[in-house]
Design goal:
Elements: H1 3-7, H2 9-16, E1 58-64, H3 69-82, E2 86-92, H4 95-104, E3 111-113, H5 117-131, E4 145-146, E5 148-149, E6 152-157, H6 158-165, H7 173-181, H8 186-189, E7 200-201, H9 216-226, E8 233-237, H10 238-248, E9 255-258, E10 269-272, H11 280-293, H12 296-301, E11 308-309, H13 324-327, H14 346-359
Parallel strand pairs: 1-2, 1-3, 7-8
Antiparallel strand pairs: 3-10, 4-10, 5-11, 6-8, 6-9
Helix pairs in contact: 4-5, 5-14, 9-10
Amino acid sequence: MSGQRASILLLIGFLLAGGVLVLMKSRSEQATRPALAEDAGPVAVPDASGLLPPGARVTLSFLYSSEKEEWLHDAVGDFEKAHPDIEVRMEPKGSLDAVRALLSGESKPVLWSPADSLAVSLLTAQWKLAKGADPLVRDAARWPRSMLLTPLVFVAWESRAKVLLGKASDLTWARLRDAVGSKKGWAALGGDPAWAYVKFGHTDPTKSQDFAASSTGPFMENFIRQGPSLYDTVLVYEATAIAEMPRAVGRWEPLRVFYPSINIWSDHPACLLAGDWVTPAQREAAGQLVDYLMTPAVQRRALRSGFRPGNLDVPVIAQDSDNPFHRYADVGVRVDVPRIGSPPDGAVLEALLQTFQRNAPN
């Protein structure tokens, strides 16, 4: 890695700590996921009769970040079965791409759920600057609402993790900066000289195109597929690390998970657009859908994909051995997260993105 990359490593870390800058793809291989004991199939939805005129049918357009697609697709399917008068049209789109599409008018959804509230701040700042209004409905009790939570983690191959840690108990940005910037590579750290230079990987914070090589899901898959020859350690969402962990078993060597000392939540907010294209009936139906997604039974399903429930009445640790926070505790996955930093506002995010673009190597 070049000296220039090493010199901006801390900036990259802060950028990536804003979950808006990282994207995960849909994960459909359910056979590799542990099924939770609480997941007892479709969840009954309260009857919605009387909330809409008899015979009326409401269509909800729902723009969402794709990393939660497995959970969202199943839950929305059950919701529609119980609400035949509501059709949900779902469109996956990366958080930054969604901000651009909303600003340009290319997308005019009723509901939007980006990866985190940083995307909301970015959209709000740019929308107010261009149009002098707030793009979203604000209601402290309901809108926006954080549906799922996941922090960021370092994931390293076990042999590399032991050397990087040395006598320390946690991997820090300072340690990683020094390791990446060393001209002697692993040999200077006491590692195998054959490992050459320390290779740290992350997605491009200026790109968030779904299912592209720059998104976190495919990025993590490639990290596991190619092994230590590609990267020694990477920064991804905790949910991505958990969901992809089974793929690494028996392929190269065990993986280890570490939490940055200052972290930030990716909170997957449910946002109701305030545009004049949204009808009262659509607002009512959107509230019904999000209320359903926040029910305990539906929230528990998110655990199998590595997410922490946004509903605080649903525990992260459940009383079963298949709970991922039990299952992967021995490799570093933990319930408690080190200090959570305050997210920057939209103007600061825009400045950070521009700084990255000016300094990133071609």
